[in-house]
């Protein structure tokens, strides 16, 4: 799973737990509904300011949207992002 997919999965789970449609989340975050779909499918990775808007619109801390995403520093090679498989919280599978 790549970085965009992990973020999208986390966003979709947060949105569904909040009982929001993609369109409702988009309005609350001042974004277009198609942007929400692209992000949730892992086809687009958002900038930090947009991630903060999305977290606020879904009523969750930003940490919830980046759960399972970590940076591995490179020592003998370049660093890279790592996105864990499955749900963002321990013992919780991917949301819908």
Instruction: Show unreliable segments.
Output: 90-96
Task: Tell me the structural class.
Answer: mainly alpha
So how many helices?
A: 5
Average residue-wise pLDDT = 89
- As a percent range, the share of helical residues equals 40-55%
How many strands appear in the DSSP assignment? 2
Q: Which CATH architecture is right?
A: Orthogonal Bundle
The CATH superfamily is known as lambda repressor-like DNA-binding domains
- The N- and C-terminal alpha carbons lie at a distance of 16 Å
CATH class: Mainly Alpha
What's the assembly state of these chains? Answer: single chain
Order of H and E elements? HHHHHEE
User: Could you please say which CATH topology applies here?
Assistant: 434 Repressor (Amino-terminal Domain)
Largest sheet: 2 strands, antiparallel
Number of domains: 1
Radius of gyration: 13 Å
Strand fraction: 5-15%
- Shape descriptor reads elongated
Order of the strands making up the biggest sheet: 1-2
Give an overview in words.
This protein is mainly alpha-helical and 96 residues long. It has a single domain (3-83), classed as Orthogonal Bundle (434 Repressor (Amino-terminal Domain)), CATH 1.10.260. The chain is 48% helix and 8% strand. The protein is built from 5 helices and 2 strands. The protein has a two-stranded antiparallel sheet with strand order 1-2. A hairpin with a 7-residue loop joins strand 1 (69-72) and strand 2. Helix 2 crosses helix 3 (33-40). The longest helix is centred in the N-terminal third of the chain and has 15 residues, at 3-17.
């Amino acid at each position: 799973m790549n970085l965009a997919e992990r973020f999208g999965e986390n966003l979709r789970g947060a949105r569904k737990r909040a009982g929001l449609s993609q369109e409702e989340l988009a309005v609350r975050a001042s974004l277009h509904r198609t942007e929400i779909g692209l992000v949730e499918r892992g086809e687009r990775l958002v900038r930090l300011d947009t991630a903060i808007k999305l977290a606020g619109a879904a009523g969750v801390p930003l940490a919830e949207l980046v759960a399972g995403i970590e940076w591995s520093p490179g020592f003998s090679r370049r660093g890279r992002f790592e996105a864990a498989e499955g749900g963002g919280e321990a013992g919780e599978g991917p949301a819908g």
